[in-house]
Design brief:
Helix content: 25-40%
Number of domains: 3
Order of helices and strands: HHHHHHHHHHHEEEHHEHH
Shape: globular
CATH architecture of the largest domain: Orthogonal Bundle
Strand content: under 5%
CATH class of the largest domain: Mainly Alpha
Number of helices: 15
CATH superfamily of the largest domain: Cytochrome c-like domain
Strand order of the largest sheet: 1-4
Bound molecules: heme C
């Protein structure tokens, strides 16, 4: 270590390019490739069906799918904001308890919602339709909408063969079409993806064009920050539930139990993968649901969010309590172990980052955004026949 002072002096004069070690390169490679290959959802027979995608896209923007004719999925999941709304807590027919999640890359998840209360994308799509604070509909009203509109009914029949007599079955079909559309929403390539691929190919020009501050932030992310213990894989999430010390009080005297209530809702749901609406002939996809166990530690746990396209999705966390990415990084930098209310995430310790390190980590997080503009609402073919 005798040469260290000299190296430090040089580093201070010339901001030297970071040379990535083999271990760092393996960790970086694990965050790709992007975009991921498409895989059908076996529990949804409409998954990947172009007619279902088109029907789902119409329904996503359809205001008649709400009790007051004013709300829609797209009122909260706004395309230009990477499918979020910019609010701390979502506002539909009434104020909800949580921050709107993006639906970009949602098909890569295994559990849905901040609390994983649903085990499929289509079941998760039923929730806002029937939640009185969001769209406030019931199966009867949804079925009446589909049956009463010649164009919607025609499109529904194209996908499912018929409009069933049972209202609940019509609602499930609507949700499966909505899921088919949402499965197509994948964020575009970000500066990080270009860098990752360049690094693996040894493309020096490509490596050099990724900003140095983002590189330094990346080294913290996969190094002393241990961020990739939870934010791992191409979507930067392990899809599991953790307590990161975000207060779980919604207001005085009312808490959000997170995963603890999510598991209870999942088990009670008539739409879970153990139920009659799962289209998969073998029930392999339901194994996780059958074996999920309720534990005390689940109290105050929320699902690890993806870190792609964060720039347009502020504010952050399950309750939107942190306004900027800098606030999030500062949270990890200063967090006190006493604030972790579950049995504790041993991996989380206050990182005590310096001002420059905070900036670098923010620069890295910003480099995971695709710059927007990947969605143009489609022009639909005229009437269905
Ligand atoms: C009032 C605003 C609002 C409306 C309207 C709304 N959502 Fe959401 N959406 C949210 C919120 C808030 C969450 C987080 C829910 C939770 O964790 O309980 C969410 C979560 C989701 C998720 C889960 C994403 C993930 O990563 O797990 C999906 C999928 C989704 N919504 C689809 C829809 C669809 C489809 C519609 C229309 C039928 C819709 N949403 C209508 C606010 C809304
Ligand atoms: C123990 C697992 C774990 C580790 C380690 C971890 N995170 Fe998180 N991260 C989460 C969870 C869970 C949430 C959501 C918490 C909530 O809303 O209550 C989250 C939220 C976030 C968000 C907000 C995203 C959004 O859309 O709201 C960002 C940004 C973030 N983490 C970045 C980081 C960075 C940077 C590090 C390393 C310094 C890190 N995380 C380490 C699990 C983790």
């Amino acid at each position: 270590m005798r040469r260290a002072p000299l190296l430090l002096l040089l580093a201070a004069l010339v901001p030297a390019a970071h040379a990535f070690t083999k271990a760092e390169m393996r960790a970086i490679a694990a965050h790709g490739p992007w975009p991921p290959a498409f895989a059908r959802d076996p529990s949804n027979r409409a998954s990947g069906n172009p007619d279902a995608i088109e029907l789902g896209e119409r329904l996503f923007f359809e205001r008649r799918l709400s009790a007051d004719g004013e709300q829609s999925c797209s009122r909260c999941h706004i395309p230009e904001r990477s499918w979020t709304d910019g609010l701390a807590r979502a506002q539909g027919l009434a104020l909800t308890d949580r921050n709107t999640q993006s639906i970009a890359n949602v098909r890569l998840q295994r559990w849905f919602g901040w609390d994983g209360a649903n085990d499929s994308l289509w079941a998760q799509s039923i929730r806002p339709i029937i939640d009185p604070r969001e769209l406030g509909m019931g199966a009867r009203q949804v079925a009446a909408l589909v049956r009463g509109d010649a164009d919607l009914a025609c499109r529904y029949r194209k996908v499912f063969g018929e409009v069933p007599a049972n209202d609940e079955a019509v609602l499930v079909g609507v949700a499966k079409a909505l899921a088919a559309f949402q499965e197509t929403r994948v964020s575009g390539r970000a500066p990080f993806d270009e860098f990752r691929d360049a690094l693996l190919k040894g493309d020096e020009a490509g490596i050099a064009s990724y900003p140095e501050d983002a590189k330094r932030g990346l080294v913290i992310f996969i190094g002393k920050g241990k961020c990739n213990a939870c934010h791992l894989g191409p979507a930067f999430t392990n899809g599991e539930f953790h307590d990161t010390g975000i207060p779980f009080f919604i207001e005085k005297g009312r808490v959000d139990p997170g995963r603890h209530s999510g598991i209870q809702k999942l088990r009670a749901s008539p739409y879970n993968l153990l139920g009659p609406y799962n289209d998969a002939p073998e029930r392999a996809a339901a194994i996780g649901t059958r074996h999920v166990r309720l534990e005390h530690r689940n109290f105050g746990e929320f699902r690890t969010p993806s870190l792609r396209n964060l720039a347009p999705t502020a504010p952050y966390m399950h309750n939107g309590s942190l306004a900027t990415l800098r606030d999030v990084v500062n949270h990890y930098s200063t967090l006190s172990p006493d604030r972790l209310h579950a049995d504790g995430e041993a991996i989380l310790v206050a990182l005590k980052l310096g001002e420059g390190e905070v900036r670098d980590l923010v620069a890295f997080l910003e480099s995971l955004s695709d710059g927007g503009g990947t969605y143009a609402r489609r022009r639909f073919a005229a009437d269905c026949r």
